[in-house]
Automatic annotation (TrEMBL):
Domain ABC transporter residues, every copy: 8-238
Family of the protein in this entry: Belongs to the ABC transporter superfamily.
Statement: the UniProt record of this protein carries the keyword Metal-binding: no
PANTHER family registered for this protein in UniProt: ABC TRANSPORTER, ATP-BINDING PROTEIN
This protein's name: ATP-binding cassette domain-containing protein
Gene3D superfamilies in alphabetical order: P-loop containing nucleotide triphosphate hydrolases
Keyword hit for ATP-binding: yes
Single GO term (MF): ATP hydrolysis activity
Species annotation: Actinotalea soli
Length: 313
């Protein structure tokens, strides 16, 4: 793919901060590639460099070295050319609490000369049509967050950047935001969403990049990033010990877990049931176990401290 096929690409991106104990690396030679269209999850533990990367892309923080492009344009140099195509929610925007959601949007729409009818469209896109006439101060956190997204959508950005958009939301709020992101991607836009909660992003992302201590650990379609890590099959059988022997003899990797077996690294349940069946062992449960991003993440990072400050190398 050429550089213009990416909504975002970075090369050798690096940022250090001066701290009490000298300089530490926040972003370390990061090569990030976000394809055009779809939801891209930008994942890493707290302090792993996600916000710093986003702020560099938006021209809010200066990189020490490296290159960044948005839709093929070098940033920050060519940010003015591309900024109209980018909507970012990095901090909660300020709305008037005593005005309705719609009035707040009307004011913003007028300020940027948005076309007539745009406010209705963005209320619809964020699932707020029914609540547009309610005052902002009565909104739930999830609705406030969606109004922020609606405001960003007024200028019809091709790329949306959300930094931890579900922070502080309850499960219903998280579900709503996820639905909104999916809808935006289905309209052909690119959504970059950062999160330290992998399960949240796994459900909505098409592709992901995982970082730890400012470094890229894995990237690609969610199915590939997870799929490379061996998933297993959970097997319920009346005689687990004998079943284990049969499967091990066939070369499979088997663990006994109580009354169940976990067959690691085997993704074909049919082969397992055939092996057991031909040995007179009848399977009462056969469930492929998907490896979640959480376990991929722990495997890749090897520890939960990858958000911690690294020394300058
Ligand atoms: N303005 C700053 N001055 C000094 N150090 C900073 C500054 N901003 C971030 N850092 C440090 O840089 C590292 C990366 O922080 P960053 O906020 O980019 O991570 P993050 O992945 O977005 O984390 P979180 O999920 O907590 O937002 C951390 O060690 C952080 O303490």
């Amino acid at each position: 793919m050429g550089q213009t096929d990416y909504a975002i690409s970075t090369r050798d991106l690096r940022k250090t901060y001066r701290g009490a104990r000298g300089r530490h690396v926040a972003v370390d030679r990061l090569d990030l590639r976000v394809p055009v269209g779809g939801v891209h999850g930008f994942l890493g533990p707290n302090g792993s460099g996600k916000t710093t990367t986003i702020r560099m892309l938006l021209g809010l923080v200066r990189a020490d070295s490296g290159r960044m492009r948005i839709f093929g344009q070098h940033v920050p140099e060519q940010l003015p050319e591309v900024v109209g195509r980018v909507g970012a929610i990095v901090e909660s925007p300020k709305f008037f609490p005593s005005f309705t959601g719609r009035t707040n949007l009307d004011l913003l729409a007028r300020a940027i000369d948005a076309p007539h009818g745009r406010v209705d469209e963005v209320l619809e896109a964020t699932g707020l049509r029914e609540r547009g006439a309610d005052r902002y101060r009565g909104y739930s956190l999830g609705m406030k967050q969606r109004l922020a997204i609606a405001a960003t959508l007024l200028k019809q950005p091709d790329l949306l950047i959300f930094d931890e958009p579900t922070n502080g939301l309850d499960p219903a709020g998280i579900h709503e935001i996820r639905g909104t992101m999916r809808r935006l991607a289905d309209e052909g836009r690119t959504v970059l969403v950062s999160s330290h909660i992998l399960a949240e992003v796994e459900q909505v992302a098409d592709t992901v990049s995982i970082i730890g201590r400012g470094r890229l650990l894995a990237t690609g379609p969610v199915a590939d990033v997870i799929g490379d890590r061996t998933a297993g099959v959970r097997v319920g059988v009346a005689e687990p010990e004998r079943a284990r022997q049969v499967l091990e003899t066939a070369g499979l990797l088997v663990r006994v877990e109580g009354q169940h077996l976990m067959v690691d690294g085997e993704r074909d349940p049919a082969r397992i049931s055939w092996l057991l069946g031909t040995n007179g062992l009848w399977v009462n449960e056969l469930a492929p176990v998907r490896v979640g991003l959480e376990s991929v993440f722990l495997e890749l990072t090897g520890s939960s401290t990858l958000g911690a400050e690294g020394d300058v190398r």
